[in-house]
């Protein structure tokens, strides 16, 4: 492709970027304001300019021209587990900075990813306002709720993707794959590499897992998926990381209360940071750098699964 240059906003650890890179695109500029992510992004994308400022303080004229803009504006405001304030939250308003930059740069396409909660009835008016913001710029806009497990990702993970094209391009999302990848396919070979986190000596390959106790909220549901299933959603917090499939399913006691199977308690541990990264389809040479293991889980959990990003990117290529 003659011009493959793209811009990445709200880049996080770079799951979207890596998927697009695998498809032949080149991120030339990225923006991420969270300082706990900078080392990871810079280590893994050494040829990308990383702008570390608050996007609200960045003028569009400071950003290079490009064929496409990709990113995931912060989702906590829309999350069903979050504040539920949507567009009224300062983080929700960051969507309009995304639109502001697209208006100025006029890329051929854009991709915006967000949590499924943005489609909730309570957010309908705000979501339509966002869609109309893109449409008013002349983009043909499509959105769809995709489950990552249908796109070569060993994980049940529903997210909304908004894709816009100039010039009345009628984009269609990629078709789901019939074959699913299991946890055994993804992480079986790592089961003996994982170890409890030692904050004084963090593992340079991310083979460590968080060891604090389990909250009543965590214990209210089964958190174990079997080897032949897909993982639960990898979340942005280590406390709520799924449990390793070596353990039996948690046993029901009463509504909102489960326990570990008696005699098998030693089998229950959270997935390690690297196991979570595998479930998110990051390659093993992608290094997560952190001083606190919870930042590692956060980076991994907030990312777009690499294989899903790749599927979307290859589909976009067909329309360019």
From TrEMBL:
PROSITE patterns: C5_MTASE_2, SAM_MT_C5. It comes from the Bacteria. Pfam families: DNA_methylase. The active site is at residue 75. Keywords: Methyltransferase, Restriction system, S-adenosyl-L-methionine, Transferase. Its EC number is 2.1.1.37. It catalyses: a 2'-deoxycytidine in DNA + S-adenosyl-L-methionine = a 5-methyl-2'-deoxycytidine in DNA + S-adenosyl-L-homocysteine + H(+). GO terms for biological process: DNA restriction-modification system; methylation; negative regulation of gene expression via chromosomal CpG island methylation. GO terms for molecular function: DNA (cytosine-5-)-methyltransferase activity; DNA binding. Belongs to the class I-like SAM-binding methyltransferase superfamily. C5-methyltransferase family. This is DNA (cytosine-5-)-methyltransferase.
């Amino acid at each position: 492709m003659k011009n493959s240059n793209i811009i990445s906003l709200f880049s996080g650890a770079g799951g979207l970027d890596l998927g697009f890179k695998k498809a032949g695109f080149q991120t030339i500029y990225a923006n991420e304001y969270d300082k706990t992510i900078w080392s990871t992004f810079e280590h893994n994308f050494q040829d990308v300019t990383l702008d570390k400022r608050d996007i609200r303080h960045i003028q569009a004229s400071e950003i290079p021209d490009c064929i496409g803009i990709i990113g995931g504006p912060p989702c906590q405001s829309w999350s069903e587990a979050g504040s539920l304030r949507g567009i009224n939250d300062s983080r929700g308003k960051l969507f309009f900075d995304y639109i502001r930059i697209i208006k100025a740069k006029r890329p051929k396409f854009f991709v915006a990813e967000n949590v499924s909660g943005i489609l909730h009835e309570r957010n309908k008016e705000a979501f339509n306002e966002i869609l109309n913001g893109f449409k008013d710029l002349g983009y043909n806009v499509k959105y769809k709720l995709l489950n990552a497990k249908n796109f070569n990702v060993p994980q049940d993970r529903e997210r909304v993707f908004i894709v816009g094209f100039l010039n009345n391009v009628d984009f269609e999302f990629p078709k789901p794959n019939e074959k699913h990848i299991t946890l055994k396919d993804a992480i079986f070979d790592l089961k003996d590499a994982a170890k409890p986190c030692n904050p004084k000596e963090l593992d340079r390959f991310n083979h460590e897992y968080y060891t604090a106790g389990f909250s009543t909220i965590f214990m209210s549901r089964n958190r174990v998926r079997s080897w032949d299933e897909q993982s639960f959603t990898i979340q942005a917090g280590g406390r709520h990381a799924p449990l390793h499939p070596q353990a039996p399913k948690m046993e029901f006691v009463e509504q909102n209360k489960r326990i570990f199977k008696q005699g098998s308690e030693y089998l229950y541990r959270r997935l390690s940071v690297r196991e979570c990264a595998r479930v998110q389809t990051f390659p093993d040479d992608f290094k997560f750098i952190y001083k606190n293991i919870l930042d590692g889980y956060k980076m991994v959990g907030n990312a777009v699964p690499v294989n899903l990003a790749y599927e979307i990117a290859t589909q976009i290529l067909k329309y360019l």
